[in-house]
Amino acid sequence: MSDSLDIAEVARLTGLTSRALRFYEARGLVEPLRTASGRRYYGSAELERLHQIISMKRAGLTLAQIRRLTSGRDFDLRALIQAQLEILEERAQRIGNSRELLRSILSRIDHSEPIDVATFCSLIKQGETSMSEEKWSEIQNRYMNDRQLKAFEQAQARLPADFDHQAHSEKWKDLDRRIVAALPMDPAGPKAQAFLEEWDALIKPFLEVATPEMLEGVHRMHENIEDWQGEVDNGFSAEAYRFHQAAHRAREEMKEA
Question: 5-69 is classed in which CATH architecture?
Fold first, then answer.
């Protein structure tokens, strides 16, 4: 393997982190060589694949799209590009909305309206909330049919009146940060299983009001999380979600053993 590079050298040459390289491997985007001891090495083909991934990510493609495009199977590149253009146009629209919001606030300042920091943040939050709700609705419509959307709305209405969505979201974000920081880890190990217990506790209030129709739609949406991650604040990342799946499978396998 004299002509191969270890993971640290590849990280330096590509600008990717070691964690990103391991994540790409876990998602099936690149398969590094292995020594007898299991140490990763990258040959010229693997390095070229990484440069392709970087180029396609710069064009805005998601990892799921890149995986399909590089799978070797027949693929409609034109349709992918068209879909990506639509996504970029949506992002441009959101940027335009943010620009208009800031211009509106600036106009109020120019007309001598008192805008302190608290008011400024409140106006931004109101605008962002409106745009976020619209985007969530668009993503749900992308992956759920009418029956599933109705079931989702009905389930949300069945949550306790005092359910604090904001506080719950912050707990998801905290768990996500701790999971991602701990990766990679053995999904069957005690640390991973402890994370899984926390995850299950957070999802429990939703499962208690969910119907099979709702769960079907939510599952389909999250199975495509790489395609829409970053468009809205989901509370947890694709990395954490895929970890959860692996830890859950490991738990089921241990029960059957």
Answer: Orthogonal Bundle (1.10)
